[in-house]
Amino acid sequence: EALGPTILMTKKMMGDFKVFLLLFLVIVIAFGVGYAVVLTDPSDLAADDTISVLYGMLFYPVFQMYGELFVEDLSSEGGAPKFPSKNETLTRDSGRTGFVVVLVAVYMAMVVLMLVNILIAMFSDTYSKVKEREDVIFKFQRLELLMEMETSCLPPPFSLIHCMWNCITTSASKDQSNS
């Protein structure tokens, strides 16, 4: 009795998750672009550094979302991390530290507090909508099953024979009426 509505609920929650994932990607990419703009000096970029900047735009936000804040890069010698090129380690620039710290704090608040709560609220709303119609959904799915069973007098593996017989007789009757 609860399996049908639960499957429907899971299907609807996957739709909710797609919407959440789109919102999440917008926020992660926006933070990554801001992070890259602040930390990348355009005069230091060569043509082949574009890949490393794009990699950094996604690398830092994703790992910061899971708690790796790269604090060691922010706390030493007064500077913020710079996206490294191929043969470079992280360097510091003292003018950007405060802004990067604020940017990371806002990002973490958005991801941890707001987005998780939005996801919970979306799932909760879907759950409550399906739960209030659970009895109707169950009865409708049961009716569909009974109607399907009523059209065939044979159990499922043998119902193919019945279906093929219906197709042949229907097409034969259409051919005779067209003649």
Overall description:
This protein has 6 helices and no strands. The chain has helices spanning 3-39, 50-65, 71-75, 97-132, 134-151, 159-178. α1 packs across α2 and α1 packs antiparallel against α4. The protein is elongated.
Distance between the termini: 50 Å
Mean of all residue-level pLDDT scores: 78
Structural class category: mainly alpha
Q: What ranges have pLDDT less than 50 throughout 5 or more consecutive residues?
A: 76-82, 84-92
Helix count, per DSSP?
A: 6
Kindly provide the radius of gyration, computed on alpha-carbon positions and rounded to a whole number of angstroms.
Answer: 29 Å
- Gross geometry: elongated
- Main β-sheet: number of strands, strand sense, barrel status? none
User: What share of the residues does DSSP label as strand, in percent?
Assistant: under 5%
SSE layout and pairing:
Layout lengths: L2 H37 L10 H16 L5 H5 L21 H36 L1 H18 L7 H20 L1
Helix pairs in contact: 1-2, 1-4
